[in-house]
Amino acid sequence: MQENKNIQVSEIVSFCVNLSRQMILAGANLERIHLAINIICRAYNLHDVSIFLLSTHISLSAVDQYGNYASRQASIPPAGINLERLKSLNQLSYKVAEITPATKVLNQMLERACNVQSYGDILSLAGKILAMSCLCFMFGGSFLDLIPVAGVTALIHYLMIIFEKTGLDRILINILTMFIAASCATLFIYADLGNSLAAVLITVSMIVIPGIPLVNAMRNLLCGQEINGILQMLKIFVETMAMGMGIYLALVVFKGYTLLSVPDSFTNPVLLSLLSFAASTGFAIVFNIPVKDLWLAGLGGLLTRIALIILSGSMINRLLFMTLSASVAALYAEFLAVKRRQPSIYFVYPSIIPLIPGDLFFYALAGLYMKDLDFVIHNGINCLLSLSGLSLGFVLSSTVSHYVRRIRYKNF
Prior knowledge:
The protein is mostly helical. It contains 16 helices and 3 strands. It has helices at 2-26, 30-43, 83-99, 106-114, 120-138, 146-166, 170-190, 197-208, 211-222, 226-253, 269-286, 294-314, 318-340, 345-351, 358-369, 373-408, and strands spanning 47-53, 57-63, 69-75. Strands 1-2-3 form a 3-stranded antiparallel sheet, with helices on one face. A hairpin with a 3-residue loop joins β1 and β2 (57-63). α1 packs antiparallel against α3 (83-99). The radius of gyration is 22 Å and the shape is globular.
């Protein structure tokens, strides 16, 4: 009997580790993982729960009411974003905590939760092209620039698939991918199939720039996950510099740096709002949000853009208006999360697309190519202020939702 109980606590801990691993691979933040583990362990009367969680590693140990101890750990490979799978896994965590099924069926339940429908490769690519086309206009591109944007987006899409199958290191993948992509973009401009090389490169870089992991890293730094935040920031910095190196090599080889110029910003508020709706919808397809929820994802991007237009027009401080704009996106997502019992990032990720400072990040890198220190400092500082504002906005909304969750799930 004692041996059977020991097996049960071992199975529960193993299930929690496997569930956490799958949630991170689907795009969950660490706060969500901690919540899922805690409610499941408490539902099964486990105590002395110890969680060590990084974006690349998880270690969990717990003791049951009979004194039996179990410990498990697992490594986590590079993650993508599949928000429908994340929603399914999140619902599974609450279901398991609510009904506490027999431990022997937990893995079967996890396998079913991971098996969700996806758009497939062609529709996912179509979503990327839609999103990149909208971003191209927002970054000052023209209709003619849509040709290289669509072509290079498709090229990057398939290059990433091919390179990841080879098992190459992410740093090398980023260098090769962006060298080939920037080379092709430069050749498009030379062939008069585009007007602004800068607008094209900024746009297609958004596919590779780890914008959402960067926001999550900043959020971790401000939310008590300092170690993980620092490690994520270092990883993102190295991988992004590798991406920049690929672009730099292409600009040197094909003398593309002579074509670089800062495009005029797109300022029409109505069209900006509509483009933001379409871009967030396109990314929602890439993130595998079902058709019935695409309009909610697009609406989040629309509301965030409207907030950004109003706030940036009425105040000078970038940190302040980015914080408030991010709060609008996060509170919108938190409201839907509470109402529909889904993870908030299911709606946060598409909603914050208008706020990710991909153009500032690119110009900071471009300043290095042009050896313009003032340009680097100006855009680099604004980029950091934007990211900090994004993170602070999340912190404010997370504080509100934290107490809402405590009230709703106080029995756990």
